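quick one before i forget lol
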Amino acid sequence: RPERLVVVLRGIPGAGKSHLARRLREIEVAAGAQPPRVFSLDDYFMVESDSGEMEYRYEEEMEEAYLESAVKALRKALDVQKGNSNYYSMLVVDACNLTCEHLMLWVRTAQAVNVNVFVATVEGDVAECAAQNVHGWSEAQIKDMADRFEETPNDVVRLDMSSLDGNVEADDADGATLAPADAHSATAAADNANAATTNAAAAAVPAVHAADAAVPPPSPPPVSNHFGDR
């Protein structure tokens, strides 16, 4: 897989983004790799209740400011060079990212320092997401978010993480799916591929290798610790 990568998760609340972020961490740790650093907006909305326990309180007027802070945290983490104790080879963004504007803040931050970035959309039925989201969003609110959700741009490398038990497929920048068979041959050609280290999904190592080899290094354009379900 790429020596360093950013995986940006997106989807409506309750779709399973945070669960997927935890699974990626579990897979990396189980394989003996360094656990990824996860950036989630949830951390910014966690406040201490009167009972002394931490609880989630969403404040719409603070979202843009929190997003800016989270993106800055990602940028700072990407500035850390290999060999430092706070260097992470995998960084995961756990966020709704309903609009392309928000999504591309993360993508361009990684591209600016020539780090491979992949986007995975976690899909879910509105009613089911309303029933299982942990922050109390109503079905009407989640439907509104789903209606405002914008498709990932075709020039962004996309990952299909519908099942971590199978092969995760990567789309190239033109939207064509990269098959696992192509991924194996691409791995040999990738200068920075590291077969001893797991990637964003252990079962999907070949696909991420393929994305690394098939997509030319991005050109820099003319963001807690964590950013997730709202």
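fyi The radius of gyration is 17 Å.
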